[in-house]
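Researcher: Structure for this, please.
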Amino acid sequence: MRLVSSNKNLILFFLLSSIFQISFGQEKHLKNIQKLTFGGDNAEAYFSPNSQLLTMQVSNPKAGIPCDQIFLYDLQSNTYSSDNLKLISTGKGRTTCSYFMPDGKHILYASTHAASNECPAPPKPKDGKYLWAVYPEFDIYMADLTGKIVKQLTNSPGYDAEAVVSPDGKKIAFTSSRSGDLELWTMDIDGTNLKQITNGLGYDGGSFFSHDSKKLVFRSSRPKTEKDIAEYKALLKENVVMPTEMEIYTCNVDGSNLKQITQLGKANWAPFFHPSDKKIIFSSNHHSTRGYDFQLYMIDIDGENLEQITWESEFNAFPMFSPDGKKLVFSSNRQQNAARETNVFIADWIDTDDTELAKSVHLKKNISFLASDDLKGRLTGSKEETIAANYLVNQFKSLKLKPYEGKNYFQNFNYKVKLNPHDTIANSGLENTGKNVIAYLDNKASKTIVIGAHYDHLGLNQHHNSTKMNSEGEIHNGADDNASGVAGVLELARMYSQNKTIENVNYIFALFSGEEDGLIGSKFMAETLKNKYPNVIAMINMDMIGRLNDKKELTVGGIGTCPEFKNSVELNKPAGFNISLDESGVGPSDHTSFYLKDIPVLFFFTGTHSDYHKPTDDEDKINYTGEKNIVDYVFRVTNSIADLDKVEFTKTKITAAKTGAKYKVTLGIMPNYADSSDGLHVDGVTEDRPAQKAGILAGDIITKIGSCDVKEVYSYMECLSKIKSGEELPVTFKRNGETKTVTVKF
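Model: Predicted structure, token format:
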């Protein structure tokens, strides 16, 4: 990203734009979603072995069910309705966690009815924190489908519940406090041969067997600090736990090979094995930055490739696959008719192409190479730029992408770099060359999308663009700016070129040089793009996407450049992200070059930071989880744009702005950074800003602001730094060789 100028103050504007939180997105794994229950709190629905029935727990005081009881639901019914619910627990006490026995004619569930016919009181929040009760009165029973209890399987002091059956019908796993802690236990299907499976301090629960019956997956809270351990033990004495910090674990059925799968923080729970046994679906609020929000996620059993599954509503949990793997049942508060209502939903499960998921390992590999000291900051025109460019070419070749034009992937350009800001000699400056690296994915489609980022950076500060004083000779690695964006383009190139889908759009993957000297490479490409590819419908730009902060703040610029872009951006937002939306097509990066050629653009940007344009912008500070989520986000947004019937270009204007500390005002132009000393050449003018209001046009050459002479971009910035907001000054410029003066209110 280029050095801040008056127009670079748009960065700060982006960060102040309104935050949008949208509650739904693309649930591509779920098709034909059907609502099964209507009213009350319906949860933990699990399939019978033949997939024709569900057992679930229901609480609905309005329907005479004061606390959880177990109900049977017939999926073969002609209509999905709460009328299909049939009580099969005693109707006394409180129940939880029902599960079918192998014969499909009996169920397991836990109940407190032996201790009391009344519902035990739920725990009250402590210090504002939510608590789960682990009622010591719970024991596990087996009942037939008429509700008759045929066997009591546990009868020991303390909590016994959460029982599930192995697919091979040999084992029952459950959670018990009989050892003094909440651990996983197994027993044979007849209730004999009890064995403790886990031993670590903390709540181990909600277990399920793998489809081959060899493994268990479960949630666990494992307190580590003395304070957390003391709190856990104190709460357990009161028969409650605080389910705010849980991770997903697996182990063999005998307890060996214990592995922590997630390390996400917050509450990760309700896990269930994918039919392949190579993935786990679960509920999590790890993404949440504000309020209550649980979504379903899926992750590989090695802890990689986390993928968001649900997008709609603020509570999605208790997922279970049907035995044949074709259906998913889950609980959600979507489509509520009343507050705090949770219903059961069923959907066809669609497995998608894993190639279409961004991989953190690829992002890290490419950023680590580009931002290494060996590449010395990738200055445009340097031998290290050539090394970086050759590396990028090899990446494109490995994906079997075509060159953008001709037989190689390079697009060379020449320009002048002004090294001395006080140099007033006309047409002076260092002659320099740069090379864009551009590849093409030909899907034989009638439209094309450009996905781009700049790969150059500041080198050893030879061009004096660093924000650190006296830093010439120091390597500016530019990990975030913009190895992060380049890695994103390369990953999207992999996803689109290696997936099983042939999209209805072609892709140009453009990696620009010369951006730090004034968008030189992107401007050069944009000049002839429509001649070479007249069917380009959009340009997607990623610049500095590697430093997503704890609040998950991401700026998306350019949403006003097409009427449909805002909807695409909002619908596909990752859970928990706080998105700042900016309409302007003009911004501090390469998308501006394409906007000025009337091409709709989007700009993804995680914001400036203290390492911006300093030698400290290094690879070890990249947030790879955040970047992966952003690349997946760009993939979804790009797909939605490709599916649009029409992508209409719209000119934009800025509705608000705030300047940085150095520049107190903005003129509202896009300056040409590489021009000679006959004045500042104006590449673009933003609507409804001071320059446009005063009549300044693209192509004008500004020579004076007030009494301050403007020779090039550097003196232009010096002039702006002396102006106060609200001042009115004459601005002198040349247009077609004629000198003009207008009054501008800054």
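Researcher: Any notable elements?
Model: Residues 253 and 512 are 54 Å apart (CA to CA). The chain has three domains: 43-277, 356-416+430-643, 669-745.
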